[in-house]
Amino acid sequence: MIEAHQLDRVFTALADAGRRGMVERLSMGPATVKQLAEPQGMRLPSALKHLKVLEDGGIVASRKVGRTRTYTIEPTALSGIDDWVRQRQAAMNQAFDRLVQAMKDFPEEGVND
Amino acid sequence: MTDVAHKTFVIERELPASPKHAFRFWSDQELKRAWNDCHPDWITLEDSFDFRVGGIEAKRWRMPDGSELAFRADYFDIVAGERIIYGFEMSHGGKRISASLATIQLLPEAGQTRMRFTEQLAFLGTAEAMAARITGTETGFDRLMDILARETASVH
Description:
heterodimer; A: elongated; B: alpha+beta; seven-stranded antiparallel beta sheet; 7 strands
């Protein structure tokens, strides 16, 4: 289960075609602001604003090396963590199936017929 | 680089007995084993269970691939028949995978029990391991839309 406010941020972040283009570009590998701005026909300040929305949404991360800021897609936001949490949830659900069965196998004394 | 990602999930279940009886399946080592042990092909290396506030439950297994999996829980809060709160960590091959806070609530409901399990977890997997999962043939964007579609479908 993803938290609602997190979902809001993801939707907000992706509600713009330019930002979606940036995410698509970053899914192929890291890129600088300039490399992200140009294909979208954006000026740098505008691109930075959009990238901030994506960063706040936890969809991209940035790192500054020297004078260049490089953006990468945030794998935890999109995949790894969600898959992993789903696996754990599935494992817990299976355990609780066995719990229900165990409770039937070892019923409460005195309330059974 | 190691990232920490935080997640919370809740599982609710109807259990076929009173909260008092349901509690025993968490507090009694034998009864807990009846539903908690599920991997007959894992070799148990350690299995200790000290169910009291301040007590520790520690388990280690050798898995079929030879690697070691460890679980360690610290019980923080126990109210018989009502509530259990514990913190736990899991490690694989000596590397910690996650640390969590788990809350089990046993609520009486029509002579039975509604169990609410809440896990708040900090996932410590490496960014590399997670990144490897999205660099397949699909683009990240396709995957994102898949995930959003699934998430939206599951949020009622």
